[in-house]
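Q: Start with the shorter request: fold the first protein.
A: Done. Sequence, then structure:
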Amino acid sequence: MIKYRIITDSSSGISPDEADKLGITVLPLNLEYKGEMYRDGIDISTDEFYAKLFASDEQKKFMLARFMEKKEMPKSTLVSPALFEEEFQKCKDNNEIALVLPIAACLSGTLNSARIASEMVEGLDSIIVDSKTALGAVKIIIYSLLKRQYDSKEELEYYLNFLIDHVEFLAVPDTLEYLFRLGRLSKTSALLGNLFQIKPLIELNSEGKLVPIEKIRGLKQSFLKLKSHIEKNAPIDPTLPCELGYSNHIENVNQLEEYLKDILPNGYTKAQISPVVGAHVGPGASAFFYFTTKTKKDRFGE
């Protein structure tokens, strides 16, 4: 049986206490907002950061006024090569394979930092891969990896790539405002979408980019569409973990949970999503992460 240590970043939503219990390492991403820098999950909690980001908007009931106002959006910065180098040295000293599974490369430069750091530690045995996903999807990949033991590095790497190929990330934003502010939608599309209560079902594609599956009117109909999507792309194994995620309003995801109750695999969890991606989908967003029978090639035609 091989020895390995998983190293991920704080966007996975795995807390320091949970990381200790699992025997993994979680390195903090940095969040920059209004001239202040915070280490995600260390200097500021998820609730505290969302309060800073969303509070003023949620007090403004007049939608047009909110869209006209210039608003500074948070920026996330990568985990530095120095932090990775320190952890890699520990892995080498303990004769462990360093398995690095960060947020998707298209969302952060953290993967590149890990690759740079790996070249600084001579003799390091490592597996450094692009997760091509984020948040609870990374978390359930980690949970699934830890459920097994491996006789070789090749066996570990094979199962890791299998999980990455089958993980699914679905989200329903409650407002289109933040997709507009981060350049994902035009102001007109976002304004009209909010006016007509459009709640798109969003998927993370094979590169880890947020893309709409369908534009739907009303939260209930979006949740029903999400359920229909899961039924068409069934869970691969009911014993594998899955997770419901939410930004700052648990009420919406509780409603989603009710719609999914009869099809949810065993042992699902519910957790708040990291501000690193939560800032893209805004307040009231809901998400679901699970493993589907269909590969990325099946789903995205690649």
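Q: Next, the second protein, separately.
A: Sequence, then structure:
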Amino acid sequence: MKRDTRGSRGARAAPVGPTQRQLRAGELVRHALADIFREGILHDEMLASASVTVTEVRLSPDLRHATCFVESLGGANSSEVVAALNRHAKFLRGRLGREIELKFTPDLRFIHDESFEAARKMNALFNRPEVKRDLSAALEDESEPLSSATPDGDDQ
């Protein structure tokens, strides 16, 4: 007799986000890459003049592919820095294999981290006068004491 795997009893929901294993391995790779960048062993004039921060590493479920989000100090020449890092990805993978203890050393792909730019835009938005006015009005409404009336409208 075949089992019915379509029912709710045997079926499991697909994971929504990364697993704990992916998160732990991503942090391990991020720290190892930061140490490698700190050593300054990459002989590339674009990378020699830039200070690179690895903000996040996301690993595939099988831990064989890593997407590394990087930001150069000040955000200057970020596209050139990312291109240089992608050129040296195989060398960095080799160094990474000696630094971390994973069954497989993941393939590295570097992407510019856009979250700092998004945060800057959000701060600029919150600093606009009309937004500040609306936020202060909302805070004043929340701080007003509630009346002693019940939801029915009867006073106590």
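Q: Describe the second briefly.
A: Residues 18 and 61 are 8 Å apart (CA to CA). The beta strands are 52-59, 65-72, 107-112.
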